[in-house]
Design brief:
Layout (H helix, E strand, L loop, with lengths): L13 H5 L13 H11 L53 E12 L2 E7 L13 E7 L8 E5 L10 E7 L5 H8 L5 E9 L10 E7 L3 H13 L6 E8 L8 H10 L4 E7 L9 E2 L4 H7 L6 E6 L2 H7 L14 H5 L7 E3 L1
Parallel strand pairs: 7-8, 7-11, 8-9, 9-10, 11-12
Antiparallel strand pairs: 1-2, 1-6, 2-5, 3-4, 3-6
Helix pairs in contact: 2-6
Length: 342
């Protein structure tokens, strides 16, 4: 149970929350008051979405830590050789079979899978932001199933790429991937371009994600923080069913610990555990009003299940047509050009 001081109206905290990116964290501060207010706001209403598909049909259809050092040391991946070949070049390039090298169970229904590239010094070479198409045709299937996934490993990481994949009931691709054994291969093709991110293109990027919709958000955030010349600030609002469903939590906490003046993540859970100090319930209009930036050169990214799009931004019409902006973001005064729907 949150203490009474945490139940102040969300709008009273708007100025304080938006200042987090330019003020150093107070010594010993945990952010519990902010998260508690978000939880209180979330209890006022919401929508059901977490059990419907995720990453649109893309993937199947923290408190502050220690202040960053002056140099803001980064998690830079191993350097590829000067002659590293890009595995995925698009155009007329066909599907490439990549061999599964290892798997890791990260939750009851989610695995992290590592696929080997063609050579130890080869890189995926994907632009940010982009995805890959996977293809599989089982013996009983009339047509192959094709699904896009966003890798979670660095685009310039030599030798391999990683995916985080949630298994969905009756999801032919996710079930196949979860059933793969090390040594088996999966056909992939790409890149599939999404939003063309450039360093310092925006002053502040806000990310609103549900479930596996976190993967393109992490791709963009990783690109921002590995570039010492990029000064963009990032706010993440991430909704899930339970704590174990928070994907890439360690990686996100690492970013928050290293860049406390530039990165902040707000988590909301449908079914939080006892003692949970962050948000409870769905991502609501009041939550977004409390934590999202309003001024400056902003970009807002949205990625999650269909119900989340409907409530927050309105759906996109097709990969090439973003559709009109509606939902909470329109009601809060953002315009279509400020929002990108993955």
């Amino acid at each position: 149970m949150f203490s009474n001081r945490l139940f102040r109206p969300a709008q009273q905290l708007s100025g304080h929350v938006r200042r987090y990116a330019t003020e150093p964290p107070k010594s010993g501060g945990s952010g519990a008051g902010l998260y508690g207010a978000i939880g209180a706001a979330a209890l006022g209403g919401g929508y059901w979405y977490m059990n419907q598909g995720s990453h649109g049909s893309v993937n199947e259809s923290a408190a502050h830590g220690q202040p960053a050092s002056k140099t803001e040391e980064q998690n830079i991946p191993a350097k590829a050789g000067p002659n590293a070949v890009k595995t995925f070049t698009g155009g007329d390039q066909g599907f490439i079979p990549l061999v599964l090298d290892s798997t890791e169970q990260v939750s009851h229904n989610t695995k992290k899978l590592r696929f080997k590239l063609s050579a130890e010094d080869a890189v995926a070479g994907l632009p940010v932001a982009s995805a890959l198409i996977t293809k599989y045709k089982g013996p009983e299937m009339e047509k192959p199933v094709i699904r896009p996934y966003t890798p979670v490993s660095d685009e310039d990481q030599p030798g391999y790429l990683d995916f985080v994949v949630k298994k969905y009931p009756n999801g032919p691709m996710s079930e196949h991937i979860h059933n793969m054994n090390v040594g088996q291969s999966l056909d992939m093709k790409g890149p599939i371009p999404k939003y063309p991110y450039e360093a310092n293109k925006h002053d502040h990027v806000a990310m609103i994600a549900g479930g596996t919709g976190i993967t393109p958000m992490y791709q963009v955030a990783r690109a921002i923080f590995k570039n010492p010349d990029d000064k963009t600030k990032v706010t993440l609002v991430y909704g899930n069913v339970s704590e174990e469903d928070i994907l890439l939590k360690k990686e996100l906490q690492d970013l928050e610990n290293k860049y406390p003046q530039r990165f902040r993540a707000f988590y909301l859970l449908d079914n939080p555990p006892e003692g949970w100090q962050q948000g409870k319930g769905f991502i609501t209009k009041d939550v977004l009003k409390t934590v999202l930036p309003k001024e400056g050169n902003l970009k807002l990214f949205v990625c999650g299940p269909p119900g989340m799009y409907k409530a927050i931004s309105g759906p996109k019409n097709s990969p090439a047509d973003q559709g009109e902006l509606s939902g909470y973001l329109a009601e809060l005064g953002y315009n279509k050009d400020q929002v990108y729907k993955f």
